[in-house]
Design brief:
The termini are far apart. This protein has 507 residues and is of the alpha/beta class. It is built from 23 helices and six strands. The protein folds into two domains: 20-149 and 207-328 and 359-370, no CATH class; 402-505, Transcription Regulator spoIIAA (2-Layer Sandwich). Helix 4 (55-72) packs antiparallel against helix 14 (306-321), helix 9 (161-178) packs across helix 10 (184-199) and helix 10 (184-199) packs antiparallel against helix 16 (332-346).
Length: 507
């Protein structure tokens, strides 16, 4: 049996089928990797511009992250590179302190992500509901489409752009009916590039996005002072980059898991992302994370294994360094058509039909996640809102199940309250309302054998009930408490401690 564990040193042992993830789908992985590489180029340049750095910073980062994550990551077939989600977090740092501080922040962000994986924070993804994931997917689909609008603005592009985009979409959706041997997005790029070069059509090209590098990246240490002051400057940025990067990566990982119907390792993905970002900072690249759009292009083009991600990184570097002049001639309408296809394929259209069928709380969570992600262009804020709403709706639902029933002895001298359900902060108020303190009998029994006490609020409510009955002269007995509840009550309860009446009742 292979050893179990998470970490780069145990990588080969964490994945019993690690070799097959490289060799099980070679042809399709190489072709899909080429498609992804071509689509990565303009995006990497655009994200560099967003961050305020030279285009080569984003291109080197996309190469480095894709290659390294293919080896160290926990999700075969998922594409990671420079992204808008992390680029927007770098703007102020670059503006105020320059590129070298960005590289240092990238290294530190990677180290934080490695730490998150080692302490298994990836497991927290189980607290993200399906409604949040659906909202995340729909929001990203909308953002991907909105990102194409500048390339469709009549003020920015020639009229020929529109028929070329339409032709590209036609090839993407119709070519697979003839054969699926070659990914239709690759055919789209080849055909439209050939047509524009052959007829000399004037349209925006990849070369118009920015200067492509013509040299390989080299190892370098960030040129910054090693001091507490430097750490104080970069740490907030590194933490934000690490959190947002892991959030988008783990959400994308879940989506690729569902698309391919295969499992993956979330904690290993955290470590892999960290290793990739740390290394990238030492070759002059900016931090990145998983990309849902490129990952879906990869999957829909047939990519399934680690080779597809590795190939995307290698092809990217080869294309910009060796074939930069040719790549610069690729028409932007071809890439716009591919990204529109991605946005259409990413959006969960069934979620619109299910709005009436699903519980109202689930629909609200999904729509709120979409709204806040699109409105803020910040994935972390949108997902955080969705998770908080999910938690609130869940707490309210559990609190509604809670109930207390009362039994009175024939002589009226004894009263038994049977508590059922989860006693926590949201149900504490209902718990207190269930008791009649003014007409207290001689003896009160509170039976919690069908209940569980969860937090300090519920312990305080139990304290208050006991002490109020005692103030009215009743003898109070608590029965049926399970061991977990008893442990919490013994540690936090005050009703049997000296002076409890005065402390809790203010007398």
């Amino acid at each position: 049996m292979p050893a179990r564990g998470t970490g780069f040193g145990l990588l080969m042992f964490s994945f019993p089928n690690y070799r097959s993830q490289w060799t099980g789908n070679v042809r399709a992985d190489l072709l899909s990797g080429l498609v992804v590489a071509l689509a990565l180029i303009p995006e990497a340049i655009a994200f560099s511009i967003i961050a305020g750095v030279d285009p080569k910073v984003g291109l080197y980062a996309s190469f480095s992250i894709a290659v390294i994550i293919s080896i160290t990551g926990g999700r075969p077939g998922m594409i990671s590179a420079a992204t808008a989600a992390t680029a927007v977090l770098m703007v102020t740092l670059v503006r105020d302190y320059g590129l070298q501080y960005l590289l240092a922040a990238t290294v530190l962000a990677g180290l934080l992500q490695i730490g998150a994986g080692l302490i298994k924070l990836g497991s927290l993804m189980r607290f993200v509901s399906r409604s949040v994931i659906t909202g995340f997917v729909n929001a990203l689909a909308i953002l991907i489409f909105l990102a194409q609008l500048p390339e469709l603005n009549p003020a920015n592009v020639p009229p020929l752009t529109y028929p070329l985009v339409a032709a590209g979409l036609g090839i993407i959706y119709l070519f697979p009916r003839m054969t699926k041997a070659v990914p239709s997005p690759l055919i789209t790029i080849i055909v439209l590039t050939a047509l524009t070069m052959l007829f000399g059509w004037e349209v925006r090209t990849v070369g118009d996005m920015g200067q492509l590098p013509d040299t390989l990246p080299i190892f370098l240490l960030p040129d910054i002072p090693l001091s507490i002051e430097t750490l104080r400057i970069i740490f907030p940025y590194s933490l934000a980059i690490a959190v947002v990067g892991l959030l988008e990566s783990l959400m994308t990982q879940q989506i690729v898991d569902d698309l391919t119907d295969t499992p993956s390792d979330r904690n290993q993905e955290c470590i892999g992302q960290g290793i990739a970002n740390t290394a990238t900072g030492f070759i002059g690249g900016m931090a990145g994370c998983a990309m849902i759009g490129q990952s879906i292009i990869n999957v829909k083009s047939g990519g399934r294994g680690r080779l597809s991600t590795f190939a995307a990184g290698v092809f990217l570097l080869f294309l910009v360094v060796v074939l930069g002049d040719l790549v610069g001639q690729i028409p932007m309408p071809a890439l716009v058509a591919i990204m529109i296809m991605v946005s259409i394929g990413t959006f969960s259209w069934s979620s619109i039909r299910n709005l009436r069928e699903h519980p109202r709380s689930s629909s609200i969570v999904m729509l709120a996640t979409v709204f806040f992600v699109v409105y803020t262009h910040n994935l972390a804020i949108g997902v955080l809102v969705g998770v908080l709403l999910s938690a609130l709706f869940f707490a309210a639902k559990i609190a509604q199940i809670f109930k207390v029933s009362t039994t009175i002895s024939p002589d009226g001298r004894q009263r038994t309250y049977v508590v059922e359900g989860q006693l926590f902060f949201a149900s504490s108020e209902d718990f207190m309302k269930a008791f009649d303190f003014k007409e207290a009998p001689e003896k009160v029994t509170i039976d919690v054998s069908k209940a569980h006490i969860w937090d300090i609020s519920s312990v305080a409510a139990l304290d208050m009930a006991v002490l109020k009955f005692r103030r009215e002269g009743a003898e109070v007995e608590i029965v049926g408490m399970n061991k977990a509840s008893e442990t919490l009550v013994d540690r936090l309860a005050m009703h049997d401690k000296p002076g409890a009446m005065e402390k809790l009742l203010g007398n």
